[in-house]
From TrEMBL:
It comes from freshwater metagenome. Its cofactor is pyridoxal 5'-phosphate. The keyword rRNA-binding does not apply. Keywords: Amino-acid biosynthesis, Aminotransferase, Histidine biosynthesis, Pyridoxal phosphate, Transferase. This is Unannotated protein. Pathway: Amino-acid biosynthesis. One of its GO terms (biological process) is L-histidine biosynthetic process. One of its GO terms (molecular function) is histidinol-phosphate transaminase activity.
Amino acid sequence: MSRPRVRDDLALVEGYHSPQVSVDVRLNTNESPIAPPAAFTEQFTAAVATIEWHRYPDRSASALRAKLASHYGVRAEQVFVANGSNEVLQCLLLAYGGTGRRAAVFEPTYALHSHIARVVGTEVVVGQRTEQFDLDLDVVREVITANQPEVVFLCSPNNPTGVVDPPETVRTVLDLTRDYGGLVIVDEAYGQFTPTSAVSLIDEHEALVVSRTFSKTWSLAALRLGYCIGPSWLIASLEDVALPYHLDAVKQLAGTIALDFRKEMDERVSFLVEERGRLATALADLPVSVWPSGANFVLFRPENRAGAEVWQELVDRSVLVRNCASWPGLDGCLRVTVGTRRENEAFLTALADVLRASSVLGSASRSPVPGKESA
């Protein structure tokens, strides 16, 4: 049988996956370590019983959009909701990317920006961040001026590095793209972990959109619910490319109810920010390089061991972190999600054990042979 052939431009594209390994401590996918409050589950369960299962869901997700609009102080027509922030990004690229168009990314950054762009046929142009993973505005200016990309991706806090872009960076990129009509997408999946946000720059006259998710701070990773905020004309274009009834009734209910628990969300964020600081301080006492983070994770690089080896030895100790060692610009790096105090302690203990064992083995390999004097 002759099989249909995958598009030539997709033949070498690998899917985006993170390992799902059975371990005691799972700190590799930046989920919230704390479940939503019991009151949320109770309200949600009761609300599910009211769903008319034989009817399609509200196509416009009007109640959820109105609630999000109130939360951010914008209008409902400036909000779009989808199945996770990745579907939001996909819709943005379906509307503004595609064949003959370009998207700019600045590596290292979130792999799905490039991946989704290529899947929908968009050419990806790449600029490099500094050694400290900051955006070099001269590089940004050069990439945008030379390529005039239809879409420019920013990510703040940046995944997987945790770097937060100052507000003036977004303004600079808007200035660079305004004259030729480029769209600036600011991915703020971890936006609640830092006090600054590009949402304050949203305006009907600016080609700027900010994407966010319920997966991290709202403790609803299992739900796969994301959203974006932008000018109403842009939101209307996303509704044109989204599949009809793409957001089911269960998601809409859960998201609407979750927004009633902002106090609990803020408390979770405060706890995780505190734990992030404690984790970074403890890592600084180990033989690893650590980068400042404004998200719910910390990027680090073992100084005397290959990152992939350390990752495997942590797994052997039933601790799973993200192996970023093969990602562009992240040679030897690992990323750990901030967990509960117990999980963080288990990670630190396991990492110290791995690095201590490495140190002992290294010392043994350098010891003089018995009976011979060292040179």
